[in-house]
């Protein structure tokens, strides 16, 4: 059986009082049976984690099923071990108390030196033949079949004993001095692992599976996760189809020649039963036109009925009935008679969304949509390649700039050293000449020599400031002598300010370029992916054309949504980054949080405007003859398809 944290993992026991006809959940590869779905799901998720170890080969980071397969293959190889060499090999292994597999493998290799067995094979053979290590002890049946003695050697009798038929090590009770010594050197003993049979608990490397995360004292303060709103107009089981159909129509509106509409308008139109709304008629017509253009099965079905291929507000129901008869789904074909009588609006939300769902599924299989998706994939790849090339070019420029600055700094250091060396040589030369003159003249000096010395002294005094000025100009860069009132330090400050402005402009241009690429890639829509999952496998969805975060339960039976910034921040603060799923979900939320907040603000303003208009309609006086303004809540009744084909 696979090992969990290097220990045997017990399987779940069979539920008590299980009825013969009772419906249960069974794990396929372990044949475990669970009554509750949550227990079954938790166990399946644990088995899918890469935390299992193959008991025979020692491979780690496997799923439970991969570990089972690895054990099966390793066991088949072990069974290829020659029977004539089995007894001497097992004799070496029995009660061998060496470091794990090291000496035992070497001893067995010496016995099997002429056979082409790898060390890995021998390790698997030793693991398969024993049930414990240090000392290695053979399985009772295996030892009995090959006549291997089960008597414990004399050097181990005081250290081991048998419990429930298995060999265990005796724990020696320590005296006071030994306990004190162990307390002082506990860290060293934990690292060495030289004493004690209990394994040292290794620190957990996060992230791990969310269900395995336990509360810790070092955890930050998590906020309470808010309960999502569930006030949908359509039945709960229809929310998934509602979102799927609306997202497809909104994302491929240009291809369908269908003017976009909001999710609320679509939901209200689905629930409306007074007549055939233009919004739903145009949506059906756009999808049916796409199927006709594809020249596929639906096109052939329409041609067989000798219909004109132009879909109008009058003939759209005929084309819709042709589609329902073509797919031949009994549940949907039951509504054909009602649609033909012109009472499509009387259908319930479940029926309308079921028809839309089948239309979208067939539209996705058309060559027109597939070619569009392939084109988008190529364009996204080209944009990604261009973005990577620009990033590489920018990195090359930065690297060259660093090399140039490093070379300039090296040249400046060399020039400084040379200038300092020349200045020190000149000073020494002047001092040496002065000493020689003093020695030659002595104490008595002529008037001519005095006058000459005065002239030379004056020349040296005049020359000194010039030399110092040149030196300062090279090293310190003091103000120049042109008298313009500006010094070099001010110029440097101006140049630095210009460089800073260029750097800021460069960073802003990089940010704009990054945003540009993200927008262009998002325009090439391929599919909407969920933001991620939480601890309990609930999915979180965000659609760019709606300001809400939708929550789908793990079984897809329950839906909810968050529609305010406060709920969004509370949701983000409730996620634990130690778990794999919630860590990825939090990362996605933080990535899109600014855009989500903008959509939430926009939606809040629209709702506030709608409420204000409704109140204004209620307060209108009967004496005012001015026509009332249009109520945004009834926008779905006044939908116009501005992209409709002629």
Descriptive key words:
646 residues, 23 helices, four-stranded antiparallel β-sheet, three-stranded antiparallel β-sheet, mainly alpha
Structure explained in plain terms:
It is a single chain. The longest helix has 75 residues, at 367-441. The protein is mainly α and 646 residues long. The two termini are 69 Å apart. Strand 8 and strand 9 (166-169) form a beta hairpin. The strands form five sheets. It has a four-stranded antiparallel beta sheet with strand order 10-11-12-13, covered by helices on one side. A three-stranded antiparallel beta sheet has the order 2-1-5, with no helix packed on it. The protein has helices at 37-48, 64-78, 86-93, 102-111, 119-129, 140-145, 154-157, 176-184, 186-192, 239-251, 253-256, 263-271, 278-293, 297-304, 316-327, 330-333, 336-340, 349-364, 367-441, 447-475, 488-523, 565-573, 580-619; strands spanning 3-4, 7-8, 25-26, 33-34, 52-53, 130-132, 137-138, 160-163, 166-169, 532-533, 539-542, 549-552, 559-562. Helix 13 runs parallel beside helix 18. Among the domains are: 1-65, no CATH class; 81-169, no CATH class; 236-365; 532-619, no CATH class.
